Recover the amino acids of this structure.
């Protein structure tokens, strides 16, 4: 069957060359990213469990986790968590399967809570911080789960596969929703800078440069005007490692210098950096600074939800097309809100990689229709922003071919996601 | 102080004239819209309470409501709700104020629950449906609230206003976050069509055409290719008002005809309409149809969250710039994630209205910096897509003037939002 | 089969003639009684539902309701509920039955919440109070339910009935636990007085004497020494109906007089009455009085649990044998913690009624053994405290006969309980 | 001030010599005992925290913990926990203190959750069981806490101390409730047997006799008739350590023999023992046995609440006077529901110890009046069941003296309880 793929010419100035650009990334410790991370980890655990037990991924949709902030009292040199953050994993998942020879029950709620703790442990456990503060993010955060059995219709839909295409050898899992996915490539210099800067602060800054007073809750916002890029960085500082306001200001200054150096490596553009702009640097009062016990703002009131942060490419880009879909936590078998966002990015990236400098921008949008096979989108739109119309004509057929190829192979995407090889936030 | 407003030329084919367009709207009864509606109603109630008690809106941020779907068993002619949906209102709000002469305590949690019930009552209470089914959405849904006292820092920030600009007569509330808002105008024909179609199904279809078997949970998705617009509509049907699969198919057919007529009124484009595409119309089994007791999918497993649905203009538009911010539930005093999204749309609309056919498209993005006055964004970007460069030059100064004027008057926006005159989803 | 019934002589001074006696009753509005009432109402609704749908009462055990107090601020003439009380119905109940011809799903959680609201409505709804205060106990209290499917073993046990006594025509439902029930009769004068006094304050005091400023949360404690009975009464007063501390003291004085008169009707003993002993009557501060918005202490921090208040005869009697079992909420089919407590009281009452003045006291204890038929207790102990040993010998055989008769007819008890003809707290 | 102490003669056959006796003990792993244990541990942690921070125990009442059972699937040789048990700590506690020089905030909710985990760890952590089953009771059970700030009135009452007795040098903390405590001594042989038997099964049976397939959830029920004592024991078995039904039956047989031997050590009475009476020993199906993954019935549906199990002496004794008060979790400063029950037992024990064989039984009941000093009960009743009236007369004055002494020194009881030297369940 022929796929409905439209490749059109995007006749405009590329975003990278426009006058203005805005780009944001919420780091791994931001409450919204944490909610995404927990939801995705839970989904992957479920997939693994289902595959181990019955040989295939069963229906689930656990894309509703909530991170509800606690209460803390951070002071220079220490402080305490008064009320631990509360994480609630929500969604639905099949908790029982009837196979020809047996009835399998799945420990869904147990898995939810364990997976969450493992995730917290893997990403935020810092043994020395635990001994300094007496508070362990991995152990002392409250984790609960309410997981339903999923909507009757969706389950039905999920199962209907085999019935509808009995004689057809190609993929035919039906889409579980009428929804779309969006992707683009390549990243602009500003986008790369934002992405890399967060990775740098949550990586080398701590491990290589030893600035361990910086927490994991990092947000990087860039606004570019012409050739000048202004970075506004929010980074939760760790109170037990900062003895005074003066030391805090010193840590911020060090972080500033490191980021400035890193930016100079990454770009030739002029870079302005502001860190923790809400601080009142004239004050000695700890509450006038971005000070935390754990390095995470969720300890003191900041909430987070799945799907409210980064898109599947790790960025929030209001000068780029975006989808509202939360990819994290959705099942990677029939949920187009997840599959199509990832696939749209893969298609765009592949085209951009092959075309190199001839294609400035690729934008891909995939629209599903509930009940139709996921490899046959209602519409696949590919837009190429090229040097000139000739370049568009040259790349148009290849772009279509690439889109077609990725759609043809959409089944393999499930496996990549289950194995954690595809980022979704 | 001069505002940092950049008006630039958007030299491209307008979206309306592009080859492809995708537009979505989640109606008032969609779980995500319900979460938005509840969060916003709660915020407005809080504002009113604060103003009544202490004369000003105090800090709150209640943008984390969760709608956790129930379990139901719908059959033709009836059925039952097995497990009621569960609504959890989350966030933070000041619950105590110390004024010079007294200490005021605010009934925040009580207000949360009451406001939610009022909202359900106002939008979904159908007395005859209650008597048909025995289930009242307004009364029988479980509503709970967990509302913290807000993060220390944010509260601090909120209060810092007066201290920083004591001698300055202009507005100086500081932004509570580094964030941005996005808006555009005018709507394309497809966008208008999607918006109107949902309003039609949740309005005249029921009241004027008497098709009361259609529920309030409606989603409209449009994909336009060239001049052809395909509408995929999902509309939960009400089981007590549909006696059989045949009658169901008949209701869908009637709805189809009404929508087709309505579309013809709204546009000259060729329109294709598909309703409830996942139905298996060959079946007599109620579970093969989009059948509900209440007309709301949340009764059977569909969850919803704030900020995952429509943007402040009521649409999801992947061919347009969008913000990830959840506007609903945020306080309308310092929360730029709300104020800037609304304002960006107002600025864009005003420019588009004045410029008429000379400006095809206006895109506005406003970037805040935490701690800086909200009327002085770090950057205000206005892009004009015009017939030609001359038109851009003509409208550039006026666009800047309009943006400046709206920013100057941003204080009045709070009042409009509190009074419910501004939609946010 | 012969039942293991032991009738023995209780050779002692009866409680009524002892030097000292302590008796307590928690009224219908006390948080513990409310928890009992909600649990029992829920169980009865379940029974009715099961009988209607499948013709028999299925397994459930919903004896774990929690009443978690709210926060309020009562002042003379008014006040407000800041945080509504929170009721959580807990337990387990079969939510699905497979019958030969179909699969029935039971709306357990929906039923829980509805039944709770109905109960609140029936017992505490006062329309004029709602209009005075703006707070409705029936509507504004938060009600949630977490109901599991019950332990595997117990369910098994429940079903095993038919298998074990296939050829036996008599009742053979097996006990679900090794547990005991306790009962005694007749009530002493002090016991009757305490019981009647609470009923009076929650009855005639309000309806006949018009003292509507008295709330439903009433606790009556009696200590008798010799012929003198001291009653300590706690009665939550309703703030909107009391304009000042003086008026409060006046209401208490009126209540005192009414209770004194009532006591004189009920007994010739000397009666001392103290009401709301913690009040600081020298103060004008409302927080120095037992003042509430709703007439229920649960509005401001008082919690309640099933099984912590009155025994099945409506009293707490430390000079009498008691069982620790919570009767409320337990299923009335196999749960001996409920059935045996009720039955023990019925047996004792019947013996006492027949014997009249010849038997001073009857004490009955029934011990079950998990898995054995409920009509065949491991041990039925009946103790008779009689004028003399001759009286004991006269009544011993009849007492045994009565006990045997009640055990023989234990099946009919289920029906009485389901119909609400048997009080359990 | 003279205390109102009444010592009266209990002219009856002592319980130990009566025809029938019933005694029960719920072991440490029983859900009700677990709820008690968690509540008491939480209270003790709070006391320690308050003392450390402000030098005195502040108001709290955390006697409402709930243990909500999970779901498991135990099979011989293994199985899995499907849904982890859920523990909810409820109650109220002061979370902020204003001292002359500072404002202290207490991490109440954090403390609740940590204390619960510590308690689970201390009493139920079995490393080898965790490695066998993959499930850790200490880590994988869900623990949450909802702790309010306590009722306004009670807090007031708590603070009022100093004001009321400014010139009086003696103890004068006011009672927080009108309530009573009950105690008796000495224990009968049956009572001792029940107590020791549970301690044996949860002690030597595992550590000395190596019967590690027996779990910690143990309940012992005794019914004595004449000289014959029947023990009905329920003991959850651990599935990973029992390979088959035959092995299960063998473990039960071993346990039976050990208990029989132990009983012979403890008593000369004839002893009958039945273990896990609901088992269907003809079956090979694991669901026909009392089989668990963790040795705790709460893993599969058995719920527990504070105050529903053992009285402060560790027993449930329907042939003895009992109080309905939950002692566990109540504050040990003003809460008579706790203090008076413990004290009544201490008084009874002291009298019984001194009097030896001259006094068969001592029964003590203490009645408080809300607002009155805790060392001045409204009534203290001591009953002595003696060989003859002469013995009563001899011991009456000393009994009064002892009661008076314990009441005089009631302040020291608080300290004993905080240090964990007094059992309360």
């Amino acid at each position: 069957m022929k796929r409905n793929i439209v490749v059109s010419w995007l006749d405009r100035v590329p975003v990278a060359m426009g006058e203005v650009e805005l780009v944001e990334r919420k780091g791994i410790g931001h409450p919204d990213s944490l909610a995404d991370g927990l939801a995705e980890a839970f989904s992957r655990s479920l997939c693994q469990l289902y595959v181990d037990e019955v040989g295939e991924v069963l229906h689930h949709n656990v894309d509703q986790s909530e991170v509800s902030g606690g209460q803390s009292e951070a002071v220079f040199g220490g402080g305490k968590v008064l009320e631990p953050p509360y994480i609630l994993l929500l969604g639905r998942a099949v908790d029982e399967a009837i196979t020809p020879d047996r009835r399998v029950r799945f420990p869904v709620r147990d898995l939810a809570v364990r997976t969450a703790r493992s995730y917290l442990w893997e990403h935020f456990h810092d043994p020395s911080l635990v001994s300094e503060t007496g508070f362990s993010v991995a152990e002392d955060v409250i984790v609960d789960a309410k997981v339903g059995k999923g909507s009757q219709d969706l389950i039905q839909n999920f199962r209907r596969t085999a019935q509808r295409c009995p004689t057809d050898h190609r993929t035919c899992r039906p889409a579980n929703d009428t929804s779309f996915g969006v992707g683009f490539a390549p990243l602009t210099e500003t986008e790369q800078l934002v992405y890399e800067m967060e990775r740098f602060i949550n990586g080398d800054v701590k491990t290589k440069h030893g600035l361990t007073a910086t927490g994991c809750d990092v947000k990087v916002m860039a606004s570019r005007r012409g050739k000048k890029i202004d970075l506004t960085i929010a980074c939760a500082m760790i109170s037990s490692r900062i003895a005074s306001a003066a030391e805090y200001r010193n840590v911020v200054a060090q972080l500033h210098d490191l980021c400035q150096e890193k930016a100079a490596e990454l770009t030739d553009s002029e870079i302005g950096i502001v860190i923790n702009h809400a601080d009142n640097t004239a004050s000695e009062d700890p509450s006038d600074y971005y000070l935390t016990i754990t390095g995470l703002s969720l300890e003191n009131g900041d909430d987070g939800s799945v799907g409210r942060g980064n898109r599947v490419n790790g960025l929030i880009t209001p000068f780029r097309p975006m989808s509202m879909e939360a990819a994290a936590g959705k099942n990677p078998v029939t949920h187009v809100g997840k599959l199509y966002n990832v696939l749209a990015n893969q298609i765009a990236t592949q085209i951009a990689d092959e075309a190199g400098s001839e294609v400035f921008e690729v934008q891909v949008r995939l629209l599903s229709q509930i009940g139709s096979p996921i490899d046959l989108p209602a519409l696949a739109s590919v837009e190429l922003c090229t040097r000139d119309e000739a370049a568009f004509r040259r790349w148009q057929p290849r772009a279509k071919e690439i889109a077609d190829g990725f759609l043809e192979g959409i089944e393999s995407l499930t496996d990549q996601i289950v194995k954690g090889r595809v980022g979704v936030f």
Residues 150-157, 160-171 of chain C have pLDDT under 50 and may be disordered.
